[in-house]
Specification:
Order of helices and strands: EEEHEEEHHHHHHHHHHHHHHHHH
Oligomer: single chain
Radius of gyration: 23 Å
Bound molecules: s-citryldethia Coenzyme A
CATH topology of the largest domain: Citrate Synthase, domain 1
CATH class of the largest domain: Mainly Alpha
Structural class: mainly alpha
Shape: globular
Strand content: 5-15%
Amino acid sequence: MAEKVIINYKGKEYDLPIITGSEDEKAIDISSLRKDTGLVTLDRGFKNTGSVTSNITFLNGEEGILRYRGYPIEDLAEKSTFLEVSYLLIYGNLPNEIELSKFTNDISSHTLVHEDVKSILDGFPSKSHPMGVLSSLVSSLTAFYPKSLDPNRSKEEINGTIIRALAKLPTLAAWSYKNRMRQPVVYPDNSLNYCENFIRMMFSLPTVGYEVNPVVAKALDKLLILHADHEQNCSTSTVRMVGSSHASLYTSVSSGIAALWGPLHGGANQAVIEMLENIRESGGDIGIFIDKAKDKNDPFRLMGFGHRVYKSFDPRATIIKKAADDVLSQLGINDPVLEIAMKLEKVALNDDYFISRGLYPNVDFYSGIIYRAIGVPKDMFTVMFALGRLPGWISQWKEMRENHDPIGRPRQIYTGPTLRTYTDINNR
Ligand code: SDX
């Protein structure tokens, strides 16, 4: 017997079906609600509202579970690589050796961007935040690849756009950093792997030889895996919403970068480090900041804490915390900010305010400590998040297109002035 809920409105009963996902999640399907009852639902921030059915990522916020296409994040972070995980997210299964080699080679052969990108880059002042530069450069790809504007082209052409997006984002991201530093851009070296290539484009200078540290490349690869997808978060929902109007993949990803930039979302990794540095510079008294975070009249929040879905631990934070320890000891770095972070976590997780609200460290709490250790400047932290999230955005955009999802257009409840008569300016 199909499950349903019955609502009783103005003395009439209406059946609404319950749908059940593969992990036994349940939702009331309200697609007939307005037609049958004239009612819409209201749910600010969509805290209780599902927007899609999806086969890509499963989260269980109560049990701290995260799986990409059914594979636990712990296994992928330990045993896989970012390109293999990107393939898994985008095409639905882990690649065999031939598939992975073709995918890797296809990406390698598209890492260069058009020389005219440098003229666009030169138009940005050196103080430009790299996220704003990156969002613009990604959108500019539609100018160099005008066929990508049509998302209804053949599967092969769409796949070409996907490969170019994966191949060129590291180059554009590194060039956004070089613009910030007012240093000459570094061209990709396709003899290197994905992360080595990016690190070299970021940090090498034409005047000196540059060797990528394998510890740094491996740490980055793990971080990118951990950021690769996270179901319908703010930036992914933005990518789907923009893509639902049949805008191109590049435009949709550019919008996702813009959404990710916010400090409540991907921008939190930069805000965490600024908060930890602030605690250190003000004498390291954690209690003051804990009290501020709890004070309703104080806009300060404990950055890197809390999550819309995880009301227990964020599995990614657990993995990143251990990786931060490993990377710092392998690089021989003793970062006082890591000690402050661990102390802050301990104090908060013994405080009822945080426990009662299910506020635990999220993916952004420790990631910045690794980025710092591998030499990434603070305002590039969210760019690293975007690099990691790209295959997730692509896979969700692709799924939305393949499912022929309708254009996203939520309803509202109007609470403004009722009918008024226009009056001449002299009579106001
Ligand atoms: C990411 O959605 C995703 O999947 C995102 C992400 C991904 O991979 O895409 O996981 C990446 O964005 C991680 C989150 C990074 N942001 C931060 O670390 C910023 C700090 N955290 C928050 O502002 C907050 O926790 C959110 C935005 C993450 C979640 O906010 P919600 O779900 O809207 O919760 P809320 O704001 O309604 O807070 C519920 C309560 C409130 O107190 P009460 O009104 O019940 O008294 O918890 C309090 C909040 O004041 N609260 C915090 C807090 N976060 C929530 N209090 C102090 N410090 C915090 N960080």
